[in-house]
TrEMBL record:
Protein name, entry field: N-acetylglucosamine-specific PTS transporter subunit IIBC
EC number: 2.7.1.193
Membrane topology: Multi-pass membrane protein
Compartments (UniProt record): Cell membrane
Origin: domain of life: Bacteria
Matches recorded under InterPro entries: Glu_permease_IIB, PTrfase_EIIB_Cys, PTS_EIIC, PTS_EIIC_1, PTS_Glucose_EIICBA, PTS_IIB_1, PTS_IIBC_nag
Keyword annotations of the record: Cell membrane, Kinase, Membrane, Phosphotransferase system, Sugar transport, Transferase, Transmembrane, Transmembrane helix, Transport
Entry keyword annotation includes Protein transport: no
Amino acid sequence: MRYLQKLGKSLMLPVACLPAAGILMGIGYWIAPSIISGQGEATGIWSIIAAFLIKAGAAIIDNMPILFAVGVGIGMSDDQEGTSALAALVSWLMITTILSTGTVALLMKIDASQVNPAFGKIANPCIGIISGLIGANCYNKFKSTRLPDALAFFSGKRSVAIVTALTSLVVSIVLFFVWPAVYSVIVAFGEVILSLGPVGAGLYGFFNRLLIPLGLHHALNAVFWFDLAGVNDIGKFWGTAEGGILGQTGQYMSGFFPVMMFGLPAATLAMYHSAKPGKKKMVYGLFFSAALCSFFTGITEPIEFAFMFLAPGLYVIHAALTAISMTIIALLPVRAGFFFSAGFVDWFLSFRAPFAENSWLLIPIGVAYGAVYYIIFRVAIRVFNFKTPGREDDDDDEINESKVTLANNDYTAVASIILEGLGGKDNITSIDTCITRLRLEIADYTKVNEKKIKSAGVAGVIRPGKNSVQVVVGTQVQHVADEFKKLCK
């Protein structure tokens, strides 16, 4: 499970490139929405500028599989060294070239039109991830290899690319037989969900939320957002891929906007109002910035991790509400899209995207859905006595002891309290981060004091394994991590 969680974190590196594409293409479509692949013509200075921006953004989204390979290669390596990224790129180039339609036709001595269509989709995010894993594993295993003096030049990190190339040859042979069957299964799964229409969109939204604690939602997203099973909702919505259908394209993104812009912020208000009187100030400090982050950027982990383990039943309710939102929006003539997540920025930029439809309606719908979230959360917390933040049975004085909130930007103090709660620097064996979490490996789990860690104002503490601890800090995690590493030296 730890390996899969690390993979999920690694995928966030290439996904973080998407906002750049969204900004460029969003501005381009605002300037001249007719400039779409195969539609419209760049005439006049503003149209030329729009086309320039749209193509620049498309350069990122069209090459996401390569970015996946590089990102996974870096993220899964032991020390995030650039050699692993180079190895991943070597693997990607070899696999996609050997298993391309033209090469397969040559090897099988048949016409290209007779080649299994699966090989026409070999340059996809899944293969990018596989290439990244090959590059990272070869780097981890052979980065310190020592060869005889005659071959000393290829010792150490220089041997990684050679081993990666040989490994990729073997993997290519395996994929030659396996990939068509895997592709058929993926396509069948996508077609089943597609055939369910709005209900399928709802099921996707439900499992998308449920997989977040495991970090596996990215794999599910790849099926619907990218060109893995022919859905490619992001590419088609923004016009970088053919096959978009007005009123249908975007249905696997649009329903997230009411949840992320309004639903979860309203949920934080419900949890704030449900907190014990003596703890409201602490809950306010925890949720205020998280709610703003969810509204503007669509990053929801600081909110979700704050209650998913304290009140798992409430999190299932949240997943069900997401499914309902996805289904309702899919039924309505309302479409909006994103490159990063369903926040205000992406909603605004997607207004004039090729397949946007009545995007403005998401605001009144979102306000209404926010009210639904608030009522359901408030009632559920009271009826089922969910221990959301501020409702724990811990003693107030213990929680507030030496409390430092991230709002003070005192990252050194926050890191110091977290380190003390983890048993000191001698108890830390590994330090890593993702978009919102400080991921740590410890020597002795009995030395961990969760109350002390939470007193730093973090969103939550997760114990995925006996010697693993994840501290949910929020979007300022990198600043805290930098100070944490200094304290551990």
